[in-house]
Amino acid sequence: MNEILDIVALVLVLLGALLCLTAAIGLLRFRDVPSRLHAATKPQVLGLLLIVAAVALALRSWAVAAALVPIVLMQLATAPLSAHMVGRQAYRNGTVEEDTLVLDELRDRRDQP
Hints:
Largest sheet: none
Oligomer: single chain
Number of domains: 1
Helix content: over 70%
Mean pLDDT: 88
Order of helices and strands: HHH
Pfam family, one: PhaG_MnhG_YufB
InterPro entries: PhaG_MnhG_YufB
Keywords: Membrane, Transmembrane, Transmembrane helix
Low-confidence stretches: none
Distance between the termini: 59 Å
Transmembrane segments: 7-28, 48-73
Family: Belongs to the CPA3 antiporters (TC 2.A.63) subunit G family.
Number of helices: 3
Structural class: mainly alpha
């Protein structure tokens, strides 16, 4: 049973590292801000969750699992919030290509603080 859990943990670490790598490549390759924000948040958060699950499986300790819970909660709370704030500021600065937006809900409020 221990070998099976170790193999599952190894697969989870590899998948998590692959997702984090794709997030880094997406940050370098994508041109516009919304695409970069998507690459910075979604695969990176899922990659971290997979790595945290692998660590919890590999160490098989409730104390370790309890220590990993705040890490997951902080990541889930801060990544979408920071991406939202960066995207909103990029829109206000005019660095977002408006012709690529499908729906522009901020067009009427652009001049307001």
